[in-house]
Structure formats: structure tokens, C-alpha cells
Design goal:
The protein contains 15 helices and 17 strands. It is α/β, with parallel strands linked by helices. The protein has an eight-stranded mixed sheet. Strands 6-2-1-10-17-16 form a six-stranded mixed sheet. The protein has a three-stranded antiparallel sheet with strand order 7-8-9, with no helix packed on it. About 40% of the residues are buried.
Length: about 425
């Protein structure tokens, strides 16, 4: 008899989990609920989309489902290196040892959805959009949902409830006030605004950006501009700045915005049309909520994964990769414990918490706060790459390279770079001395 699993959240993590569960020899019936509209009915311009970088962790997770990685890759871009531009125009190119795949989140979700609905019918899979999770009753093993615009609630019983509903998880609320559950919710120290280039090249000047690179600019005030090329020839990214950065906060007119980019990022400013300057001015400032928990399961019935369990800042580009890796780990535990939830759920906590908290530490200290420390970061990265080839046991790569290119766990990466991480934390005021 099939076990019924309810997944709250139809993002990349929740949808990939449905793929994994449904291929387990017809053991599960899946229902997915999401508070947003069906993304397949929306244009990309109507969504709050952003580029996702998939390193080997995320790509390996997709590759285990036949045809999925190929479909996603066909709509993404292969990135082979990064270009760092420091103040006064100094430019540094860093080649990646492994390509990363960049894909628009909207297209990633649509690919996951399309493959699910094409492969499984309503006897195995049902997806409900515009349904908000309102209550979780652990004792009764029931969860309540309310459809957008309707007063009535529906009650759904299931054998397993999985919260893949993001940093502001509604499912996670049932963990509050349970025995020895610790939750830390922190806004990342930097805020950001989205930015879009309609083309990688200015047709008038002939100057443009390399299509196979991530592009990062650093200003004199440590404000950063991060832009990623997409498959359709456009480029999107974020302006990242300290929360108390009055230079950005004081921008109130299009003239001020244009002057700001001309002054701080001249190599990028000529790619921003006037219409995008106007849109940028109207966009709200966004904040990243990070999550640290000491437990990801509640009894043998509820599990939280992805951002619901361990949301991190986007600094390392590992948020989605870690979420997709969660799916692989949970699937392996179901194999190990023969789909026994009472054993698999607590073991997921045991195997994942340390790595997730290590990733939080690495992400918080990804970018040094001062120009001097950033210069040291670039030197250390180059030196480590050279020496690692000669004496790998004595000269580990820096976190950026290790989390992206190696098979080491996040905990092992943090251990190898404990000294550097502590130095950055001290500089950012995150470490008591």
C-alpha cells in the first residue's frame, strides 16, 4: 500500500524530492502544495526570478533523474570562469577548474514541473497551487491549507509531511515550543537590489562582457555588483551593499542612479539602459533571511529540508546546491532504512546539521569586508591554487573553490579553512576577542 507524502513548497527542492520519491518502486503517493500560482502560467518577466548557479552538488542531484539535467542545461549557460573588477578598473580573471551551470530559477522550476507531470498521473501525483499552509497538527498527523481568496480551510492527513517551503517556512512553526528545538533567524548583513542587462554588449561602443563568466565589481565603499549571463543573451544579478550604506539608500532619482553606476561601476554602467535605471529605482531593497536549526525532524512525521532548514546568504552560490543535496541524502537514508521514517528522519538530522551550519559559517564570511582583506583574499586564492597542485595535503584551496569543485562536505571545507574564516569573522565583528 502506498504511503501518502505531503510536500509543502513547489520550489526546486520540493519538486526534486517528488521525483526521487515517485521513482521508489511505486511506494508513495505525493501531494504538493504551494502558496504561489502555477509558474507554468506565468511569463518569466512576471516572476521574481533570479539566476541559480549549479555546481557539481546540484548537477549530480539532477543527473540521477533521467533526462532532467540535460533539459535544464539546454536552457542554461555554462560558466567557465569569473572576472573580478576592483576599484580603479583593475581586472582579474579566475578560471574555474569545473564548469558551473547557471539557469534562471523560473526555468529550473518549470523543467522540474514538466518532467513530473509528464511522467506521473493523478493516481500518484497531485499539485495544488495558491494554497497556504495554515496549521500543522503533529499528534493527529494532519495539516491544514487555505486557498488564496477563500475563507474555508481543508484538512489533509498523510504518512509524512515535508516542509520545503523556504526560509519563512510555515511547516517549521510546528517545531517551535517542542523539546530542545533551537532556531536562529538572522538577516544577512548586506542588502541587495536586482539588476538586469538586456544584452551583454553595448552595440554603440562594441564593448561587452564575456558570456561564459560570472562578473563581479567591487567599489571603493565595498559595494559589490554581481552579474551572471543567461542562455538568452541577457544578464541578471544583484547590487550588494551594507545595510547602512547611505550612498545607495539616498538614491531617489534616475539621474542619481545613473551617476552612481558611472562613478562606481563604469564598465557596467554603459550596459544599463535608461528603462532599467527607472526600474532599478522602483525595486524594493531585498533582505536575505538566514536560518540555523539544531533539528530538522519532528517525531517520525515531519521533516524540513532546503531553505526551511538551513537558509544561507547567496554569497557562496550554494543555497540551491545544498537544498538539492538534501534530497540525495534523504533518498539514500530511505534506502538504508528501507523507507522506515522513524529511523530515516532523525538520521537525516544527525548527518545534515553539522554540514548545514558549516555552510552558514562559510557563507557569512565569503566576502572580506575591507579592501586590504579582499586583496589578501585574492592573493591567498591564487597562491593556494598553485601550491595545492604541488602539496595538496599542506595547501588546501579556499572555500569558494572547495565547495564548488570538490566532493568534501561543508564541514570538512570549514575545518580546512578555519583560520581564514576566523580572520574574516573578526574583521566583520562576528567573532568575540
Amino acid at each position: 500500500m502506498r504511503k501518502k507524502v505531503v510536500i509543502v513548497g513547489a520550489g526546486p527542492c520540493g519538486l526534486l524530492l517528488a521525483h526521487y520519491l515517485l521513482r521508489r518502486n511505486d511506494r508513495y503517493q505525493i501531494e504538493i502544495y504551494d502558496r504561489l500560482s502555477d509558474p507554468r502560467t506565468l511569463l518569466a518577466s512576471q516572476t521574481r526570478s533570479f539566476p541559480i548557479t549549479l555546481s557539481h552538488r546540484g548537477k549530480n542531484a539532477l543527473a540521477k533523474i533521467d533526462g532532467l539535467l540535460e533539459a535544464v542545461a539546454s536552457q542554461g549557460s555554462n560558466i567557465q570562469g569569473s572576472v573580478l573588477r576592483q576599484p580603479k578598473g583593475k581586472r582579474r580573471f579566475i578560471r574555474l577548474t569545473r564548469d558551473i551551470l547557471v539557469v534562471d530559477r523560473h526555468r529550473l522550476v518549470n523543467n522540474l514541473l514538466s518532467h513530473l507531470t509528464q511522467k506521473y498521473d493523478s493516481s500518484q501525483l497531485n499539485i495544488y497551487f495558491n494554497y497556504q499552509c495554515t496549521q500543522v497538527d503533529v499528534k493527529a498527523k494532519q495539516v491544514k491549507f487555505q486557498k488564496n481568496g477563500e475563507a474555508a480551510e481543508i484538512t489533509v492527513a498523510c504518512d509524512l509531511l515535508i516542509g520545503a517551503d523556504g526560509a519563512r517556512s510555515a511547516v517549521r512553526t510546528c517545531f517551535l515550543n517542542t523539546h530542545l528545538f533551537d532556531l536562529q533567524q538572522t538577516y544577512f548583513t548586506d542588502d541587495y537590489k536586482s539588476l538586469y542587462f538586456p544584452s551583454l554588449k553595448n552595440e554603440e561602443t562594441g564593448i561587452g562582457l564575456e558570456p561564459s563568466c560570472v562578473h563581479t565589481w567591487q567599489s571603493e565603499t565595498s559595494t559589490r555588483l554581481l552579474m551572471v549571463p543567461l542562455a538568452d543573451g541577457t544578464c541578471c544579478g544583484t547590487l550588494i551593499f551594507a545595510r547602512n550604506n547611505h550612498e545607495v539608500l539616498s538614491l531617489t532619482t534616475t539621474t542619481q542612479v545613473r551617476e552612481f553606476f558611472d562613478r562606481n561601476f563604469p564598465a557596467a554602467s554603459h550596459l544599463i539602459p535608461d528603462t532599467e535605471i527607472e526600474d532599478f529605482l522602483q525595486r524594493p531593497i531585498a533582505r536575505v533571511l538566514t536560518i540555523r536549526c539544531n533539528r530538522y525532524h519532528n517525531d517520525d512525521w515531519v521533516l524540513i529540508i532546503g531553505d526551511a532548514a538551513h537558509a544561507v546568504s547567496p554569497s557562496m552560490g550554494q543555497g540551491c546546491n545544498a537544498a538539492l543535496e538534501d534530497v540525495v541524502i534523504f533518498d539514500s537514508l530511505l534506502d538504508e532504512y528501507e523507507d522506515n521514517f522513524a529511523k530515516a528522519l532523525p538520521e537525516f538530522t544527525n548527518r545534515r546539521v553539522a554540514d548545514a551550519q558549516a555552510l552558514w559559517e562559510l557563507s557569512e564570511t565569503a566576502f572580506p569586508p575591507s579592501k586590504a582583506l579582499f586583496a589578501e583574499f585574492l592573493f591567498r586564492r591564487s597562491f593556494a591554487r598553485i601550491m595545492h597542485k604541488i602539496l595538496p595535503q599542506w595547501f588546501p584551496l579556499l572555500p569558494f573553490d572547495l565547495v564548488r569543485d570538490s566532493n568534501l562536505s561543508y564541514s570538512e571545507v570549514l575545518k580546512l579553512n578555519a583560520g581564514w574564516v576566523s580572520k574574516v569573522k573578526k574583521a566583520k565583528g562576528l567573532l568575540k576577542v
